Amino acid sequence: MYEWAELRHFRYLLAILERQGFRAAAEELRTAQPNLSVQARQFQENASVRLFRKMKGGRIRPTDTGVAFKVLAKFLLETRDEVLDALIAIERGDVRSVRFGCTPLVDEAVFRTFCDLHKEILPTCPVRPTHGDTAHLAEEVLSGKVDAAFVTLPLRHPDLRIEEVRRDRLVVCLRRDDPLAGKVSLQTFDLQGNLTVLYHPQRHPDAHERLLELLRDSGVQIEEYSWASHPSEMQTLVKGGHGFALIREGTTLDEELTTRPIVGVDWTVDTALIYHKVNHPKTVPILVKRLLKQIPQNSKETTPSKAPASIQASLAGGKRPPQRVKDEPVQMTLLG
Q: What number of other Cβ atoms are within 10 A of residue 302's Cβ?
């Protein structure tokens, strides 16, 4: 469809827009200015777009389309380099096996899809799955024991590449025969005295502390509660009549359980893929882009129902490197 568009066009036009002129771009690209002008004109005519306007003194000003072009052209050229890096690494035999990790609160389907995508590229390369908490997997990725891992945010480390891949709303899990299951959605005050099943505080100390703080801010005081170390254990406790729990929307439920959204809040579990910025299998960056095309983005993204001020929260958990973000909008992200 766009066979006339070549990578050199994107490289040339990106240089023109970034250098704000043809002369500076031609010097950077080590090509003749007339050649650059011809290439730029042909591309814009074929695509029926206008990327810049000429100003006095030979300078140019990007149009709105030109501003977008700079971002997208960089993405395209970066993908080209990643594809070549992957092919060269495969040819050299650098990718003989991979170990991918996943935390309990991440959707297992996302993890399986990622592993399947790698098998599609390299059918003979063994994939070794591993599981653990966010902090533990982050340490193993940094040490090279794990090549990439799906974790829940927030997580920060200067040596890690952190690619957010999905966002899921947290909802209340309760028994179907509970009187409150008759409501379409729950108010935060419905949680008082009922939200008594929580993720084990020692698995994610910071996340646990932050969750209690957010609940207090919304008027919910948590006192006695049961602990669970896995989402399936949380469902077992809810089914056993030990109270409500907060779980990821879309989680496969026991037939005796159901979920309800909470009015006035937008608490989410944010999933990200992490890998070492330098020491990673060269197939991983390409897999991230392919994964983003195949999984739902911002799953169940909704606007909180009208109620007292909407609350967005952020749960940081486990050991450091996870850190609480300050002076930013607060969004609840549960570590698994």
A: 10
CATH number for 7-91 (one of 3.40.50.300, 1.10.10.60, 3.30.10.10, 1.10.10.10): it is 1.10.10.10
DSSP codes, 21-32: BHHHHHHHHTS-
Task: Please report, in tens digits, the pLDDT of each residue of the chain (336 residues total).
Answer: 788 888 888 889 999 999 999 989 999 999 998 988 998 998 899 899 999 998 887 788 999 999 999 988 888 888 888 889 899 999 999 999 999 999 988 999 999 999 999 999 999 999 999 999 888 999 999 999 999 999 988 888 999 999 999 988 999 999 999 999 999 999 999 999 999 999 888 777 777 787 788 888 888 999 889 999 898 999 999 999 999 999 999 899 999 999 999 998 888 888 999 999 999 999 999 999 989 888 765 444 444 443 333 333 444 333 334 333 333 333 334 433
Q: CB-based contacts of 152: which residues, under 8 Å, 6+ apart?
A: 103, 105, 106, 134, 269, 270, 271, 272, 333, 334, 335, 336
Q: Which residue has 């050991």 as its token pair?
A: 319
Q: Which of 20, 18, 3, 14 has the alpha carbon at shortest distance from 40?
A: 14
Whether the upstream peptide bond of residue 129 has omega within 30° of 0, thus cis, is no
Domain 167-268 maps to which CATH number in 3.90.550.10, 3.40.190.10, 1.10.10.10, 3.40.50.720? 3.40.190.10
* Same fold? 7-91, 96-166+270-294: no
Q: Would you call 233 helix, strand, or coil by DSSP?
A: helix
